[in-house]
Design a protein that fits this description.
The protein has 271 residues and is an alpha/beta fold. Helices cover 42% and strands 14% of the residues. It has helices spanning 3-6, 12-20, 33-41, 53-56, 68-80, 100-114, 128-136, 152-155, 165-180, 193-202, 223-226, 244-260, and strands at 25-29, 46-49, 86-90, 118-122, 141-146, 185-189, 207-210, 218-221.
Length: 271
C-alpha cells in the first residue's frame, strides 16, 4: 500500500463532524505548490486558495483585479502539493454575482480545471440564486459573511462589520439562509465575537472565523501574515508565529555579502 493511500483526506463531511464533536477546524491560505506542501504537512484541516492572492502574490490593493483564470492557475498549483487537506477556492469578483448561470459556469471551471474540492463565495440573500444553482449542481459551497473584501468599495473601509443591531440581524438571517441553501460551512470575517458566537450556535454548519473571536468552530489566517512575511499589516486579530521577513531579508543580505567577498562558493561547493 502506498503512503498516499494511507492518508485520510479531509472532506466537507469531516468538517461537519468536527463541529459536532467540538473539535476546532484549522484553515490557512496557500497559492502555490511549495507553500501548499508545507501547510498540508503541518496538519492543517483545510487550505483556502483565496482571492487574497491578488494582494499577497500580485501586489494589488484589493482582491478585485484577480481573474477566474488566475484563480484556477493558483488552485492547480495548490492541488499538486496537497495529500490531506480539503482545498477550497474563492470565486473572484464578477464571476458569480451577476446571474446564477454564470455563477455555475465559474464554479464548474474551478472544480474541473482547478481541481478544487469546494468553492467559496461572498454574500447572503443578494446571491441566493447563485448559491442555490451551484449547490444544486452538486458543488460544495462555503459561504462568507461579515467583512466581504470583494465589496470593499461599497463599505469604503476594512473596519469591523455588524456592530450595529440592524446589520447584525441581517448577518444572522443570512447565516441561517446559507445553511438552508445547502452551504457546508461559513467564513465569518471581522465581526464582534459575541455575534460570531451567536451565529455559531444558531446554525449546524461549521463557522470559520478571521477576526471573529474564539467562539467560531474554526479559524483561518493568510499564511504570509501568519509566518510574518508581510510587514506593515498588523490587524488586531493577527498572531504572527514567525518573523520570516527579517529572516529572509537577513539570509539574502548574507548571500550578497558572501558572493561579493568571494566567500561563496568555496572549494567544498565547487565541482
Amino acid at each position: 500500500m502506498s503512503v498516499h493511500s494511507e492518508i485520510k483526506k479531509v472532506t466537507t463531511e469531516s468538517l461537519r463532524k468536527m463541529k459536532f464533536d467540538k473539535e476546532k477546524i484549522t484553515m490557512l491560505t496557500a497559492y502555490d505548490y511549495t507553500t501548499a506542501r508545507m501547510v498540508d504537512a503541518g496538519g492543517v484541516d483545510s487550505i483556502l486558495v483565496g482571492d487574497s492572492a491578488a494582494n499577497v502574490m500580485a501586489g494589488h490593493e484589493t482582491t478585485l483585479p484577480i481573474t477566474l483564470d488566475q484563480m484556477i492557475y493558483h488552485t492547480q498549483c495548490v492541488v499538486r502539493g496537497v495529500d490531506r487537506a480539503l482545498i477550497v477556492a474563492d470565486l473572484p469578483f464578477g464571476t458569480y454575482q451577476s446571474n446564477p448561470e454564470k455563477a455555475l459556469e465559474s464554479a464548474v471551471r474551478m472544480m474541473k480545471e482547478g481541481g478544487a474540492h469546494a468553492i467559496k463565495i461572498e454574500g447572503g440573500v443578494e446571491i441566493e440564486k447563485s448559491i442555490r444553482r451551484i449547490v444544486n449542481a452538486g458543488i460544495p459551497v462555503m459561504a462568507h459573511l461579515g467583512l466581504t473584501p470583494q465589496s470593499i468599495y461599497q463599505f469604503g473601509t476594512y473596519k469591523v462589520r455588524a456592530k450595529e443591531d440592524q446589520e447584525a440581524q441581517k448577518l444572522l438571517s443570512d447565516a441561517k439562509l446559507v445553511e438552508e441553501l445547502g452551504c457546508f460551512a461559513l467564513v465569518l470575517e471581522k465581526i464582534p465575537a459575541d455575534l460570531a458566537a451567536k451565529v455559531s450556535e444558531s446554525i449546524s454548519i461549521p463557522t470559520i472565523g478571521i477576526g471573529a473571536g474564539p467562539h467560531c468552530d474554526g479559524q483561518v489566517l493568510v499564511y504570509q501574515d501568519m509566518v510574518g512575511m508581510n510587514q506593515g499589516f498588523s490587524p488586531k486579530f493577527l498572531r504572527r508565529y514567525l518573523d520570516l521577513y527579517s529572516q529572509i531579508t537577513g539570509a539574502v543580505s548574507q548571500f550578497v555579502t558572501d558572493v561579493k567577498s568571494a566567500e561563496f562558493p568555496n572549494e567544498k561547493e565547487s565541482y
